[in-house]
Amino acid sequence: MNAVQRLVDQKVWEGCLMGFRYRRSAKLAPGIRLNITGRGISSVSIGKQGLHLNIGKKGTRQTISLPGSGLSYSNRSSTTPALATGLAVGGLLALLIHASRGSVPAQIALAMIGFCGLAFLISVSNAPPQSTTGDASTIKATTGISSENALSLEQRRKLDEIFHINGASR
User: Fold this and answer.
1) How many domains, the chain?
2) Domain of life here (predicted)?
3) CB–CB of 59/76 below 8 Å?
4) What is the pLDDT of residues 53-102, one digit of tens each?
5) pTM of the complete model beyond 0.70
């Protein structure tokens, strides 16, 4: 067994590599950047120097700065992961910017997105309305309660009033 194999087997290199980081940024369109780290796509930044919005895996952050001074203020508005939303918004903005500058592929992509959105809206509006009330067999099938055992809306309201007046909780 050679010396390199022994070092790999002893996992000596794990501690040495922990301090290294990889970060790249790709410009999608003016004011829209895709940030890439060693673990993949980390965020989308929207805005110019001095004011930008960063939407990524760790949430949403707004940053305002005085360019050239080194002074900035950053505020995390959400800790909910929003990378998918950021990619969608960044991609649509990039398409809009490229399409407005005369890019035919971007214009075609926007037209296709528009047609798909329109088809979705038409299919949703043509869907049969879902009934909020059902016949006795539907109620029994979905809730397991027969219609003679089910409370009417008025009876439920009276019970709610009684429980709230007496301070009891359900």
Assistant:
1) 2
2) Bacteria
3) yes
4) 888 888 888 888 888 888 888 888 877 777 777 788 888 888 888 888 88
5) no
Do the domain assignments include residue 96? Answer: yes
Q: How far is CA 66 from CA 29, 31, 62, 74, 76, in A?
A: 23, 17, 14, 12, 19
**Which three-class secondary structure string do you get for 8-30?**
HHCCCHHHHHCCCCCEEEEEEEC
Q: Which of 78, 100, 122 is the last residue of a domain?
A: 100
Residues 6+ apart with CB under 8 A from 141: none
Residue 39 within a domain: yes
Q: Are 79 and 143 in a shared domain?
A: no
Structure-block tokens of residue 74: 């950053």
Question: Which residue, 45, 43, 75, is CA-closest to 62?
Answer: 75
Domain range enclosing 35: 23-100
Same domain, residue pair 42 and 87: yes
Signed CA dihedral, 59, 64, 70, 71: sign only: negative
* pLDDT number for residue 28: 85
Dihedral pair phi/psi, residue 40, rounded to 5°:
115, -160
Residue 71 lies in a domain: yes
